[in-house]
Amino acid sequence: MQFQVPQFIETEDKIVGPLTLRQFLYFAAAAGTAFLLFFLIELWLWLIFAALFGFIASLFAFIKIEGRPVEKMLFNAFKYYWRPRLYLWQRKRIEDKYQVEEGGEEIEEFAEKRGGAKKMIPSLEFGKIKNLWGQMLTSRKKLKREKRKPEKYVVMRKSTGEKIAMKRIDYR
User: Fold this and answer.
1) What is the pLDDT of residues 48-96, one digit of tens each?
2) By residue range, what is the domain housing residue 65?
3) Which element (helix H / strand E) includes 44?
4) Where are the bilayer-spanning segments (predicted)?
């Protein structure tokens, strides 16, 4: 069996002469606006606005920046500048966060064999960001860090006899 694979699927269909529907709508909107302004303002001012609307319509209809239409680029730029941006990064010491409860010596020995506790990656907590953002905007005081309880680990044996460290979870 042979199947035809569609090609040129990213090109838009030419609907109105050499223009696609999107390009035609941009020029129609510019022409309609210029037509309404013709009856409202002086001729010399209308010529300036008509040329400006024609330039903007051709910019939106024909120009692409890195393969993306101008309206998408402007929308993404507006969205980027409108949304608040908050980037926080603080290096955390992993060793302080873990606490061994059962089999203390055994788990320390296990951690040394496996390259230390540095390989255990802590879980990230993204709660209370809105509250932190409000404190950052309205407070002049230095923000205090929340103390978290260290995570508890236990040593377990697999059926093969291999020892593994697992995080203990208390559901109470």
Assistant:
1) 999 999 999 999 999 988 888 899 999 999 988 888 777 666 665 554 4
2) 14-82
3) helix 43-62
4) 24-41, 47-65
The separation between CA 61 and the C-alpha centre of its own chain, rounded to angstroms, equals 28
Provide the 10 A C-beta neighbour count for residue 30.
21
Tell me, yes or no, whether 161 and 132 share the same domain. Answer: yes
In a domain, 3, yes or no: no
Among residues 97, 90, 169, the alpha carbon closest in space to that of 132 is found at 90
Q: Tell me how far apart the alpha carbons of residues 117 and 108 are, in angstroms, rounded to a whole number.
A: 8
- The residue out of 62, 82, 102 marking a domain boundary is 82
Model confidence pLDDT, tens digit, residues 23-45 = 999 999 999 999 999 999 999 99
**How many residues are recorded in the chain?**
172
C-alpha to C-alpha distance for 18 and 37, rounded to whole angstroms:
27
